[in-house]
Structures are given as structure tokens and as C-alpha cells.
Write a structure and sequence with these properties.
- This protein is α+β, with helices and mostly antiparallel strands.
- The chain is built from four helices and five strands.
- The longest helix has 11 residues.
- The N and C termini lie far apart (38 Å).
- The N terminus is likely disordered.
Length: 154
């Protein structure tokens, strides 16, 4: 079995490489920006939310699955504002109370800085869908800046 060890040592500046950029100002692209670009073009149902649980990007497939008319309709909406047509797991499929929104995998990933997974139920017109969701926090250094979620209808 092959064995590989890696170590990070010293600055590239000491070796004649470019000096690391500490601060790029307001024009700097963030981790959320990079993932939002990928999600915008993704074929899979996925979305990116900021650390404030605001949707930064949603793929077309995620919009269809979660009940948004378009990507433009989804972006800028806060998960805490009841923008997802979530219902509970009872036979009646009652509207999910706001107190349960903290259990959404994206919100859990934001709050715990850990991978989160769970099932969601959404009502689309007269149909109720069960969706498997997995979310991972997006980090910049030690700071949580957002979460990336993928969805799959069960």
C-alpha cells in the first residue's frame, strides 16, 4: 500500500513566489460567490445560503424541486421567512411551524459547522414530495460564511 505524507512549511514569498494577499477589499470574491457560480450552472438540485440563511444561489433543478418559479425568485430569500413550502411528516401534511426551521440541514450546517443531513417534505401544488437533503458548511478560515446543500427526491 502506498503511503504519502505532506507538510506545509514556510511562505511562498520566502521562496520567491508571490506574497499572499491578506485583504482584497470589497472586490474580493468570497467562498460563497465561488460556490454560487457553480450552483447557478449545476444540473443537480443544490443551493447555497449565506451565513444569514439567505439563498445566494439555487440550481434550476433545486428550484423545480423546492417550488420556486425561477432562480431569480429564489435568490435573496431567507430560509427563516417561510419561503419553502415545507410540511410535516403527518398524514395530513400540515404546514411546518417556523419553530422547526432550525432543523433544516442547511441551517444545522450553519449552526454547527458540521455536515448535516435530513429529510424534508414540501408541498408543490397538490403533490407532497419527500426530499433527502445534505448540507455542508462553507468556511473562510475559521469563520462559517454559508452552507452548500444538495437534494434528492426520495
Amino acid at each position: 500500500m502506498a503511503h504519502l505524507e505532506m507538510a506545509v512549511s514556510g511562505s511562498t514569498a520566502a521562496e520567491g513566489g508571490p506574497e499572499p494577499v491578506a485583504e482584497l477589499g470589497s472586490l474580493a470574491r468570497t467562498t460563497v460567490d465561488h460556490w454560487a457560480d457553480a450552483v447557478d450552472a449545476a444540473l443537480e438540485p443544490c443551493l447555497v445560503v449565506t451565513h444569514e440563511a439567505i439563498i445566494a444561489a439555487a440550481s434550476v433543478a433545486a428550484c423545480r424541486l423546492l417550488g420556486f418559479a425561477s432562480q431569480e425568485e429564489a435568490v435573496g430569500k431567507c430560509l427563516y421567512d417561510g419561503v419553502l413550502p415545507l410540511v410535516d411528516f403527518t398524514a395530513a401534511a400540515n404546514v411546518l411551524p417556523d419553530s422547526e426551521l432550525g432543523k433544516l440541514p442547511a441551517v444545522q450546517a450553519l449552526n454547527t459547522a458540521r455536515l448535516a443531513r435530513g429529510l424534508l417534505r414540501v408541498r408543490r401544488d397538490s403533490e407532497v414530495l419527500t426530499i433527502d437533503a445534505v448540507a455542508t458548511p462553507l468556511m473562510e478560515g475559521e469563520r462559517i460564511v454559508g452552507a452548500l446543500s444538495f437534494f434528492c427526491q426520495v
